[in-house]
Amino acid sequence: MNPLCMLITQGFLKQGETVSTRCDEMESLIKRGCDKGMIENPRGEQRTLKNKAVTHRRKGADKLKPEDITQIQPQKLSLTLRSGEPQSFDLKFKRAEDYPIDLYYLMDLSYSMKDDLENVKNLGTSLMLEMSKITSDFKIGFGSFVEKTVMPYISTTPAKLLNPCTGDQNCTSPFSYKNVLRLTSDGKKFNTLVGQQHISGNLDSPEGGFDAIMQVAVCGEQIGWRNVTRLLVFSTDAGFHFAGDGKLGGIVLPNDGKCHLENNVYTMSHYYDYPSIAHLVQKLSDNNIQTIFAVTEEFQPVYQELKNLIPKSAVGTLSANSSNVINLIIDAYNSLSSEVILENSKLPEGLTIAYISRCKNGVVSEGENGRKCSNISIGDEVTFSISVTSKGCPKKGKSETIKIKPLGFTEEVEITLNFICECECHKDGVKNSPLCHFGNGTYECGACKCNEKRVGRQCECSSNDVATEDMDRTCRKDNGTDICSNNGDCVCGTCECKKRDNPEERYSGQYCECDNFNCDRSGNKLCGGHGRCECRVCVCDPMWTGSACDCSLDNSTCMASNKQICNGRGTCECGMCKCTDPKFQGPTCETCPTCPGVCIEHKECVQCRAFGTGEKKDKCEKDCSYFNLIKVKDRDKLPQPNDASYPLMHCKERDANDCWFYYTYAVNNNTEKEVHVVDTLDCPTGPDIIPIVAGVVAGIVLIGLALLLIWKLLMIIHDRREFAKFEKEKMNAKWDTGENPIYKSAVTTVVNPKYEGK
Question: CA angle, corner 127, sides to 122 and 128, nearest 5?
Fold first, then answer.
């Protein structure tokens, strides 16, 4: 709902604009010429009707009645909502110490729970003693259940109806649910009455516990529930029947969710089906009952899944004979009471509520988690910020009431909602006003609201005459075929232009031929953001010109550092310099990338940014961030003067290590300084040690081999000369061939005298 301008004269509405165009944003109405005093802009509000502070008390202090204890603040509010405008308020919650508790123990009395019953018989006084550590106002009650009293859940033979157990076991007749003991503060009475109970029996494994839970929830008067913390302990060692299972016994009528106890016995189990889980959730929530499922370990998974479907419920593992039931109840109660979850009643159509929780230790949550806080101890105070927003106007503006409460608690916040559906000026309308063509309408909020079958801005036409050819003719521009330029409707011979989805955009003109959104754009902005669009033409702001108001008449942006416009080397056009000297570039024609000295000027910055060396390496980021650095692999990748559309300078510089580096410097067409640099240094190569050493070694070896060969050759020549000389002397020698007088033969011949030659 937008503010309404009640001014309709003095040209506020342009020709062709509908009366509804008066509804717009406040700034837009003022900009279009509506006097601020003529703008009606109703605002939402909130009033706190009941704001009793949360109770601050300690255990042992003066005892208070439950209705005198306050855990939630405020208690009653009135919100006036305007469409789209949220109303927010804070809700405080504080767990009161020594808050009263009602506990109802609902027990499965099928035969398998026989040993459990013995332990429960003394539960009253023991549990009263334990709960006295938590509260001084505690009441306990007891109920039991078995199963529906029809086949196939129980045996309906006369003998089995009297005693469903086998053998010598003495069991009571089967029943659906009994309220054995309404809530009482007398623990001994609990022990006495529970001690008088007997086990019963049934045929199938699942039990009829849901019937019993439903009756405990809705029979508040018979159970004795007070407006305090309500706990229901559901004890069993079996599963459960739910809606639809009654068909096995021929029961098809859905559970009605009403109390049917007569003499504390559920009498309609044979008539109504088991309740559904959703039905139970609703009734438990409506009656602020928190459920504790005390079940054996075998059925833990089943009841864990059930717990996930029932808010503010807990599951505990029951020992085989229920000996741990007291500890189970205490632990489950502490778990349930340490968490607060807000829920709200059904919301009217178009209404939304957002929650933000501010829990202990500064934990803040939103969304679904914004509804709850965990780990709350007694005496802790938490806050919820709640925002209520209306979209539209539900039920023609009639007031509605919603309630917000913590699950499992009886206290709640009641919120009365009132809706702003129209402006106050509508109440001052003048019926059959002469301003509306001789009384053919009601004059309200500065415009005519026509009577039935009357149309036109002043209700000057009958609706029967609206579609005549004569009237349509006046809505065609230049006798064309398009009525109202296809942007409006011809009403009473006058064009009423169509509305656009965007309220900022509108058609206008006698024939709806104009609009305020089809003008030239610059920088993706209508009229460059420096003007307004009127009838598809930009009307520029001062100091701006051009078809899209994108040409600035301010030459301060062209002023060079020497106080000359464009450094005296160009002209200022639309706030930007156009350099006339091709050597100069930049926003003020002060940059000359090809002038001598450019390479030396930028050497240190290129060196530090590209290689991390040089005199400026320690302050490189501070002094050398004025250009864009682009690295390339080799000199062939550097941009060439013929390829670039702007002047650039090739540079070759040497660093302290006598290494050369190559780069180009230029100012591109976007006036950005750009440096391309080869990312590897060109350094002079030093001697290669390995080949030198290998050459020296090889030379030494070769020289040695050569010397050996020469020596060997000389020795061969020498030996051959000596041998030749020897041969020559041998040839010339003359030897004596006589016998040697001192020579004796080495052979001696002896003749055997006995030898006869045979």
Answer: 110
Question: Is residue 44 a contact partner of residue 87, using CB atoms and an 8 Å limit?
Answer: yes
Question: Which among 512, 469, 464, 515 is positioned nearest to 493, based on CA atoms?
Answer: 469
pLDDT digits (tens, 9 = 90+) for 612-656: 888 888 888 888 888 888 899 888 888 887 777 777 788 888 888
End-to-end CA distance of the chain: 168
| CA angle in degrees (0–180, nearest 5) for 551-554-557 | 100
Cis peptide before 74 (omega within 30 of 0): yes
Q: How far apart are CA 123 and CA 424, in angstroms?
A: 66
CATH architecture of 101-337: 3-Layer(aba) Sandwich (3.40)
Q: Write the single-letter amino acid at 270.
A: H
Q: How far apart (Å, rounded) are the C-alpha atoms in residues 386 and 412?
A: 14
Q: Are 372 and 386 in contact (CB under 8 A)?
A: no
Dig out the tokens for 757 from the structure. Answer: 């030659």
Question: What whole-number distance in Å separates Cα of residue 278 and Cα of residue 210?
Answer: 11
Give me the residue spans of the domains in the chain: 5-42, 47-56+68-97+341-420, 101-337, 426-465, 521-552, 600-678
Q: What superfamily does domain 521-552 belong to in CATH?
A: Laminin (2.10.25.10)
What's the whole-model pTM score? Answer: 0.56
- Closest C-alpha among 150, 295, 137 to residue 209: 295
**CA quadruple 592, 594, 597, 601: dihedral positive or negative?**
positive
How far is 205 from 213, CA to CA, in rounded Å? 18
Architecture of domain 47-56+68-97+341-420: Sandwich (2.60)
